[in-house]
Write a structure and sequence with these properties.
Number of helices: 6
Number of strands: 17
Radius of gyration: 20 Å
Shape: globular
Largest sheet: 13 strands, mixed
Mean pLDDT: 95
Strand content: 25-35%
Distance between the termini: 40 Å
Structural class: alpha/beta
Helix content: 10-25%
Amino acid sequence: MASHGTVEHTRRLVPVSTSSNGHDLELIVHTLTGDRPGPTLGLLGGTHGDEPLTVEFVRVLLADLEQASFAGTVIAITCANPLAFRTLTRCTPDDMVNISSAYPGNSNGLLTEQLADAIFKVFDGACQAYIEFHCGGILPTVDYVYMYTNEAMARAVGSKVLFARSIPANPVGLAEHLNQKGVHAALVELGGGQVDQRPYVERIRRGIPNVLRMLGMLEGEVEHREDQVVVTELATLRPHNGGLLISSMEVSHLGDIVEGGHELGRIIHTLSLEEIETLRAPFKRSVMVLARQGFSPINAGDYAFMFGNAE
C-alpha cells in the first residue's frame, strides 16, 4: 500500500486482572483512524495460544494500514488471550477454559470469563464489521472461512471454501454474539501446522484489504474468486486412539475434493508399532479444509482432519 501518512494510530490499555504473583493481565486496543469518514472494522487475533500465527496476521494488517489511505476506523486486539499465548495452549492455563466458549463474558466470573467480558466490551457497539482470525494450531493446517450473514464479506477474504449453516457451531463465540447484534462478521481459519506460514500471511495481506474494499473503506475494485465452494456441513475427524499419526495427505491440497472412504492417515501405537486406527474421508465428495501432513503425535479426540460435504 502507498504511504500517505494520514492514518492516526492510538493505543488504549484495558486492565483485566492481577495474578497472585503480582503481574497484571491487560489488553492493548489499537485504533487506526482513516483520513475520511466510514465504517468501523474490528479485528481479533490470538484467541487460542496455540495459534500464534493469528497475532502476526493482525500485526501486519495494522502495519500495512498505517501506510494506507482508507475511510473509517479499524479497532484491533492482537492477542486476545496473552496467558494462553505464553503457554502455547488452546485454553487459559489458569482455569483451563476456552475463551471462545466464554462470551459475552462475566466480570464476576472465572478469569477467562473476565477476559472475555473485557474483549466483548471493546467491540460491542463499536464496529459495523468484525473479523476474527484462527489457524489450525501447532500441528494441523486449515483453510476456510466461517460465513455468517454477510456472504459478500466472507467471499472477499479469498479462501476457496466457505462454511455456512443456520445453527451456529459456536453459539457463545464472540463473532456469533456480534452478528446477532447486526454486526457483519466473518471467522477466518487459515494456516498453522508444520509448514511455512509466510504464504498464509501474504494471503491475509491481500484478502483483508479486499474486504475493506467491499466495505467501502478502501478504494478499488473488489477481487472475486471464481472457484469458491459453499458447504453447509463440516465433519471433524478425531481419532479414538492416540499414537503416531502417519498422514497420507498434503496441506497443499486443502480445498481439493477427496472421494469418500479414501485413506487419510493411520494411527500407529507408539510402543508396539501396531496400526490401531485408520482415518478415512467421511463424505462421498469430501472437500478438505483441515489436515495434518507427515508424521505427528496425536491424542484421542485431537483434530486430525476436517472435511466439508461437497455433494
